[in-house]
Amino acid sequence: MWRAFFAFAGVLACINSARADTPLSYLSGFGDKADATTPLLWGLIFVSCVVIILISAFVLSGAWLRRSRDSMPTQGPIAVMSQPGGGAWITIGVGVSTLVLIGLVVWNGVTMAAILGPPPNTQLEIEVRAHQWWWEFNYHDANPSQSFTTANELHIPVGETVKFILASDDVIHSFWVPALGGKTDVIPGQMNLAWLKANRPGVYRGQCVEYCGKQHAHMGLLVKADPPDEYTAWRKAQIAAAPSRPNELGDAADLFVLNCGACHTARGTQAGGRVGPDLTHLMSRSTIAAASFPNNIGYLSGWIANPQGLKPGCHMPGLDISAHDLDRIRAFLETLK
Amino acid sequence: MKTWSIAALLCFLPCAAATAQDLNETSKDPKQWVMAPRDYANTRYSDLDQITKDNVAKLQLAWSFSLGIPKGQEAAPLIVGDTMFIVSPFPNKVFALDATSGDLKWAYVPATDPASQGVACCDVVTRGLAYDRGRVFLATLDNHVVAIDANTGQEVWNTKIGDINLGETVTMAPLVVKGKVLVGDSGGELGVRGKLTAVDEGSGKILWRAFSTGPDQDVLIGSEFKPFYDQFKGKDLGVSSWPPDAWKIGGGTIWGWISYDPQLNLIYYGVGNPGPWNPNQRPGDNLWTTAIFARNPDTGQARWAYQLNPHDLWDHDEINENVLLDLNIDGKDRKTLVHPGRNGYMYVIDRESGEVISADAYDTVNAYLGVDVKTGRPTPNPAKIAPLGKPAQDVCPASPGAKDWQPVAWSPRTRLLYVPHQHLCMNYQATEVGYIAGTPYVGATVDMYAGPGGYRGEVAAWDPVKRTKVWANKENFPAWSGALVTKGDIAFYGTMDRWFKAVDATNGKELWRFRAGSGIIGQPVSFQGKDGRQYIAILSGVGGWPGVVANAEVDPRVRNGALGFTGAMQDLAAHTAAGSDLLVFALPSDVAQPSQAAPSQAAPPPAPPQPQPQPPARQPRPRRHGRP
Amino acid sequence: MRQAALLFSLLLAPAALAQQHAGQPSAGTPRIHEPGNGQPLANVPISNLYPGNVAASPDIQNPLHNDPESVQRGMNNFIAFNCVGCHAPNGGGGMGPSLSDNKWIYGSKPAQIYLTIAQGRPNGMPAWAGMLPSDAIWDLVSYVQSIAEKPSDKLGKTISPTSPSIEQVPAEFVSSPTPWRMTEPFSSGRQPGTKK
Fold first, then answer.
1. Could you tell me the CA-to-CA distances from B141 to B116, B127, B427 in Å, in that order?
2. Number of CB atoms found within 10 A of residue B168's CB
3. DSSP structure string for A138-149
4. How far does CA B373 lie from the centroid of its chain?
5. Closest chain A residue to B437 measured between Cα atoms?
């Protein structure tokens, strides 16, 4: 029993200490929203542990004491004894527990209410559309020509609050970046609001946390919190159309439009599909397939050749194309910086 | 041989004499009808008065001609000298006919690409031809501008101005201004980038091209550009009022009418809807869609622009005609442009400056709460913004607007505008849409139906100075034909349930009706024949956006068909089938020319100057259609 | 500590399994279906005239006819690839002919519909073979057959003030791959009966 308890505590300690290997750890926060809830989390864990310890202690000691105090009759019925005065214990116990519970509810309510909506004057607004099984991010702007769309990798400026409008066209998903804040469900036919703020630069992993079909487990995202200068430069680059192709690629862009354009957009080409992720600046992203694989030549080629092998059941169909064409499409994609 | 050639010379001289004249002057000759909108001001007023309120009841069919293409017949016949030119829907055959006898002189059959039918949003219509200096100008559905010798029917040149694989087509009637054939494009439902092209009438070379979206350099906005309202001032608004690169596929097509003021040397035209219809995919004002442009026809440079529907929510194109009228408003003579807006408002705009003088609803409007003439902006009705994932309901006017392309007529005698229009409301759900070049880029599920009162069309007389409706005739179906008004104070229009009607221009009282072979969506014109009779010509043949329910494979039981127009036209096929007849009406000879018997009759025909001597072979034969 | 490891492996088992999938295609992975399933698709007739009075009719089934999700995927494709723009929601027709009335210009058999989509047709139907993989086209075939009215033993249809007598519940209210299951009385151009 004690070994099991120590093992549990050890697991918690491991999770907390090995942060780099546990990108979805929620036990410490890196932004205002997470910072607000982390003490709540630890507080509730602490209280829960205390409750477990107390109750375990009472149950065990109760069993132990009863056994040692009385010698059981070996035969016949066991008499049920009445000990007067025990009612007070119940009253006190329930009373104390209730007070503690009410206190926790109030603490919880106050904390959650404080982070319910984004702080006023939040400028940056990103519309998140959850799809089976990837994330679309539409960066809004009062000036429409400064708005743009990207997928699966968010960039946000460090120290700035970002408001998220969550929408889904298919099934219920849930948007969660553990290190920066709690979950918010993404529900078809409804617009939910969320907000995040990163206080330290870094890459934070997020994940869909409402089961949404075959590839739910591979519906990840990355949030890159950049210093303001880097963020501004990234944003400017995203707004631009894809750069023009070097001549040696010839009609590779046409191949791309023909084979990929019905579903994907690459601004600067005639590809304007909206079924799959916007690929205008594909090579600015470090992963592909909703943060499932690193974005390198190998995985990119494999993904074009056999997406069903890498992510069975995903909506990207296999393309019946020659190795030569595949090569050229991949070479074209590599120009989408 | 010699005498023959002199005779031939004599024969062609009148044509040459007539055509060498400035088109503006020729358009004033009441005997002819040399451009689809009648004149550069787009009045569609005929200065002929042989047909009067008293004798119009005797109007009868003089001759007819079958174009043989059972699609929507929206074209206006042209009458130049003694010849009538008429064009069919795709494949855009051109016919030259003797305007009096109906004899076929020649036919021109272009090899228009059949695939172009697949990128024409709303039937394969054309709205007419243009004419200047002995040449007829045709714009084909597959984006060719063709110059045809008016006498021989021989092709002189052809120039391709668009690409069907980008969704581009042409349906408008070209207009010739100062030797330039001006042609816009269609395809606002296919993510095209709208443009107006000026083609040299002599050589077929493209002289300038003004896009409706994109940087100022492409829109031909330069130092001459002096818009009235502040929101139209600034650099590259055709880019910055769109999400990045969306302007490249943002619509703004030009498929309606062009007007021209020779004194100000400005052309005026309206621009179509932004693409896609789904407004959520194009935040911003989406300039210069749904705008009116004033441009210098020599260079194409814009003088002013005014956008009617910033960030259009309902496919309210503003390609409708701009009638150039000099009106006395509040005691001041003003050069105005009257634009019956698709959004349901009748705009009176100062055509020198682009200032909106007034804008009043002429049909049921609840999509907007009004137009602020101070800012030039309409106020969208927030109650009609649909909740997420649900349709907006009971939005009026529907997507075709209170009035679509069907042109109004203006009578300088009654000083009223005759406005054939529709009366429709709709449910409208925006849906996400991807762009695939050459396929529809719409993103809306639309369902139209009759507006309040249960009727679907109306022909109204509107006073643009008093800003009131003087009379209105309700029609069961949308009044999708153009209007014509004559000096006899008679207004003519056709209906989709096969009636061609003449009404009293002062009160709308019906004076005559003719049962046509097919529903009428064409443009009535009037001219004088060699026999001295006044003729009225109209094409019968149902179609166009509302008419596809009767002339194409459209299921009336699926309301969202035809971009939602099926819902409003479900029962059309029970009233008409497709057709393609040119109908030409005149009074019987004995009624038409009472002046021969009684020369001192009170209201003689206007007898405008007729300088050209008629060659002997073409002497009018006044009794030809009468009984001996 | 061993327990901790056990706990972890239990928690992570699904993820690990999924990772294993990543390497090799599993049995359930759909492959690209050959358009003609080995039969010569080129022999599928589009015309109803056969010289010699014997039709070459290779027996080509929709390879996805047993896939219950094919119709729904086809509906998604119908919208995503802009078929809906010409043929209208529920295939009512407009720029392109209606698909709802069981009238087929180029043949009603799955292989004929497949070819019509893949090759295009001269009067305005685009050729989709280059752009769409064959499975996507077969899904479209499934959907197009699903939205067509059931064949009737009548040769023709009557159009009159009292016919047709029904219409579909419009698509702005109901989105379904089987629209003929929901009908209401014909509205003759008036507001649909469906209440908001």
1. 6, 11, 31
2. 23
3. EE--SSGGG-EE
4. 26
5. A270
Give C85-144 pLDDT, tens digit per residue.
Answer: 999 999 999 999 999 999 999 999 999 999 999 999 999 999 999 999 999 999 999 999
Q: Which residues contact A52 (CB under 8 A, 6 or more apart)?
A: none
Listed residue (B447, B467, B227) closest to B353, CA to CA: B227
Q: Quick one: which of B100, B241, B92, B68 has its CA closest to B531? A: B100
CA B524/CA B484 separation, integer angstroms: 6
Encoding tokens for residue B336?
A: 């105005």
For chain A, the residues whose C-beta falls within 8 A of a C-beta of chain C are 3-4, 7-8, 10-11, 14, 217-218, 258-259, 261-263, 273-275, 292-293, 306, 308-313, 317-320
Which single residue is written with the structure tokens 């503003």? Answer: B318
Q: Could you give the ipTM of this predicted complex?
A: 0.89
Question: In terms of Cα–Cα distance, which of B325, B206, B218, B312 is closest to B268?
Answer: B325
| A331, two tokens | 């070479």
Residue written as tokens 């408001």? A163
Q: What is the pLDDT of residues A203-261, one digit of tens each?
A: 999 999 999 999 999 999 999 999 999 999 999 999 999 877 777 777 899 999 999 99
How deeply is B184 buried, as exposed, middle or buried, from its count of CB atoms within 10 A (0-12, 13-18, 19+)? buried
Best of B245, B287, B289 to substitute, by most chain A Cβ atoms within 10 angstroms, is B245
Residue with tokens 């003519």: B492
Over residues B339-371, the pLDDT tens digits come to 999 999 999 999 999 999 999 999 999 999 999
Nearest residue on chain B to C126, alpha-carbon basis: B118
Is B189 labeled as catalytic in the residue annotation? yes
AA letter at B529: G
Minimal Cα–Cα distance from A145 to chain B, Å? 4
CA distance A14 to chain C (A): 10
Strand-pairing partners, residue B110, are: none
Q: Considering the candidates B92, B143, B151, B273, report the single residue annotated as catalytic.
A: B273
To the nearest 10 degrees (0 to 180), the angle between helices C2-23 and A2-17 is 50
Share of chain B above pLDDT 90, in %: 89
Least Cα distance to B292 among B234, B327, B337, B343 occurs for: B337
> Touching check for C35 and chain B: CB below 8 Å?
no
**Largest interatomic CA distance in chain A:** 99
**Three state DSSP letters for B70-125:** CCCCCCECEEECCEEEEECCCCCCEEEEECCCCCEEEEECCCCCHHHHHHCECECC
pTM: 0.89
Nearest by Cα to B181 from B297, B274, B282 = B297
What mean pLDDT is reported for chain B?
A: 92
Contacts of residue B79, Cβ cutoff 8 Å, sequence gap at least 6:
B31, B32, B33, B34, B85, B99, B525, B527, B537
A1 closest CA partner among A63, A45, A47: A63
B345, B361 Cβ separation under 8 angstroms: yes
B49, B185, B189, B363: the active-site residue = B189
**How confident is the model over B99-142, as pLDDT tens digits?**
999 999 999 999 999 999 999 999 999 999 999 999 999 999 99
φ/ψ of A309, rounded to 5, equals -75, -40
Residue A30 identity: F
Which class for A331: exposed (0-12), middle (13-18), buried (19 or more C-beta within 10 A)? middle
> What gap in Å lies between CA A197 and CA A34, rounded to an integer?
9
Length of chain C: 196
Contact A189, A144 (CB under 8 A): no
Q: From CA B445, how far away is CA C78, in angstroms rounded?
A: 14
Name the token pair of C169: 């519940």
User: Between vectors from CA C172 to CA C166 and to CA C174, what angle results, nearest 5°?
Assistant: 70
B543 to chain C, minimum CA–CA distance in Å?
A: 11
